Amino acid sequence: MMKLWGRKSSINVQKILWCLAELGLVEGKDFERIDAGLHFGQNRTPEFLKLNPNGLVPTLEDGDVVLWESNTILRYLARKYDRSNRFSVDINTQYQSEKWMDWQLGTMWPPLRVALLGLTRTPEADRNYPLIQKSYQEADSLLKLFDQQLSTQQYCAGDHFQIGDIPLALCVNRWILLNQTFPEQTGPRTHLSNIDAWMKRLEESTQYKLVEEKALNIVK
């Protein structure tokens, strides 16, 4: 049975759980999930480090295949297990989706991550509030680019849901929750109507709600 190492509150583990749900793969039946990371531990043991020398989650074991890096795992699962063509295999659509996956990882997530960790993992006495607000506002500005993209199409790569929408939506989820919970520390959040409509489509037509509730734990 396929094994997924990682706690459900991790944004990167949630990417995988959402993708697995879209592919019709069920925890306990098609894959086993093992809590790891933060207070669960396990990710620094010799056994885990043999699988993933970074000591991070998620890590996927699928037979002889062992993968880490969440976006790579998404690509693998979509390639191997998309038997019902949930995600398009058209090359143009695929790489439009992958473009936004790389943008999420390399451009938009780094500043948002600074704000997220600063407000949810750092003791209050040690928080750098000017840096937190600067980082949040940078992510806010970057999301305006994605909102513009959505003004002419329904999803990141066109008018059909793709794996690229998964990491983007989970980042947007954090962007919204942080502002709702820490409005003074983040500064104002721009109202982006196209992103709002896209998130509503995801709630109504995908398995997003499976991970949405788990994401709420990040601010508690």
Architecture overview:
The protein is α+β, with helices and mostly antiparallel strands. It has 2 domains: about 1-80, Glutaredoxin (3-Layer(aba) Sandwich); about 90-210, Up-down Bundle (Glutathione S-transferase Yfyf (Class Pi), Chain A, domain 2), CATH 1.20.1050. It contains 9 helices and 4 strands. It has helices at about 10-20, 45-50, 70-80, 90-120, 130-150, 165-180, 185, 195-205, 210-215; strands spanning about 1-5, 30-35, 60, 65-70. Strands 2-1-3-4 form a 4-stranded mixed β-sheet, covered by helices on one side. The radius of gyration is 17 Å and the shape is globular. The relative contact order is 0.14.
CATH architecture of the largest domain: Up-down Bundle
Number of DSSP strand runs: 4
Domain count: 2
What would the CATH topology of the largest domain be? Glutathione S-transferase Yfyf (Class Pi), Chain A, domain 2
